[in-house]
Structures are given as structure tokens and as C-alpha cells.
């Protein structure tokens, strides 16, 4: 698996931060019976070839397509685990050939009254 760029290296990153959606997620029966709020954040690092996007729209990673894909995954049916949701998001992100690495955080917001959220973070590099 390729490593993430060294700190200070030239890189271009697109973010979707704290997108909150209603989703059927969880392994408990009560979670299967109702939708719950899920917060999703995504960081996508571009391939070296795409790391200097300037003002050319065709060279940038389109965050609108990423948000649309996340919403489609959330509406597609029940998901057992935050990890599974994050993996599906990573797969959708790698549909764009300019994406070299993806960091996806999926959090269930309303699980514990004394915790802001619980969930999972996945970091993936483009498969060789």
C-alpha cells in the first residue's frame, strides 16, 4: 500500500467536512428500526499529476460528485457498520482517477448522551 505524502510535500486535498445525513445503520435491532443521524467527513489527496489544479475545472476533484455518492450510499439500504459505510465511500472516491488517497470518517452522533459521536476512520490508498 502506498504511503501518504510526507508533511510539507506538495499536495492537493479536497474535503467534505461534517456532512450530516439520516441513515439506517447499526447492528442492534433498535438501530434497524429507525434512521439515525450520521456525520461523514472525507479528505481526498490528489495524485501527483493532479496536485497542481490551478483554475482548470477539469483538473480538480469534484466534491459535489463525492457528496452525491455519499447521499446515494446512505439511501441505498441498511448498513451494519460504520466501517462498511466508510469502505463504500472510499470505493466511490476512487472512481475518480485523480484521487490517490482517501481518509473517511463515519460517526453515529446520537448513540451515547455523554459522547459527541462514535464511529470509524478508514484511510486507503489507490489500489495498484
N→C terminal distance: 8 Å
Radius of gyration: 16 Å
If helices are DSSP runs of H or I spanning 4 or more residues, what is the number of helices? 3
- Helix % is 10-25%
Q: How are helices and strands ordered from N to C? A: EHEHHEE
Mean pLDDT: 89
Oligomer: single chain
Main sheet: strand order: 1-2-3-4
- Classification by helices and strands: alpha+beta
- Percent strand equals 25-35%
Question: Overall 3D geometry?
Answer: elongated
What's the number of extended β-strand segments?
Answer: 4
Q: What is the makeup of the main sheet?
A: 4 strands, antiparallel
Unreliable parts = none
Q: Could you explain the architecture of this structure?
A:
- By secondary structure, the protein is of the alpha+beta class.
- The chain has helices at 29-32, 63-75, 82-93; strands at residues 13-23, 36-46, 99-108, 118-125.
- It has three helices and four strands, in the order βαβααββ.
- A four-stranded antiparallel sheet has the order 1-2-3-4, covered by helices on one side.
- The protein starts with 12 loop residues before the first strand and ends with a strand.
- The mean pLDDT is 89.
Main features:
128 residues; alpha+beta; four-stranded antiparallel sheet; 4 strands; 23% helix
